[in-house]
Amino acid sequence: MKGSEWVLEPDAFQGKVDQELTIHFENVGEVAHNLSVGEFPADERPVAEQDEAGTFIVKTDTIQPDETTSVVFTPESTGTFPYWCDVPGHREAGMVGEMTVTE
């Protein structure tokens, strides 16, 4: 996955419940970015509410331009979960996407 001003690519991906996922996050932009994956499906709790509450399944470190980081996690339930950059103002600028978890 790549982050730049003001895009996360891809803006959607899929995983399977109880199967380990590894996300490699590369900052190809010109300012610091990170990636948070929401704890609640998008239809249960909006991204803004999850962001404000600090509720997420997993979150990368905030990295500088030309840096890469990785996170490993295992989704425990099905649904469509939001992900976003939580550097102030970046989510609002469009750095959001959706992870769909199936059985």
Automatic annotation (TrEMBL):
Spell out the SUPFAM superfamilies in the cross-references: Cupredoxins
Enumerate the spans annotated as Blue (type 1) copper domain. Answer: 16-101
Name the Gene Ontology molecular function terms of this record: copper ion binding; electron transfer activity
What's in the keyword line of the UniProt record? Copper, Metal-binding
Q: Which domain of life is it from?
A: Archaea
Origin organism is Haloferax mediterranei (strain ATCC 33500 / DSM 1411 / JCM 8866 / NBRC 14739 / NCIMB 2177 / R-4)
Output this protein's name.
Copper binding protein, plastocyanin/azurin family
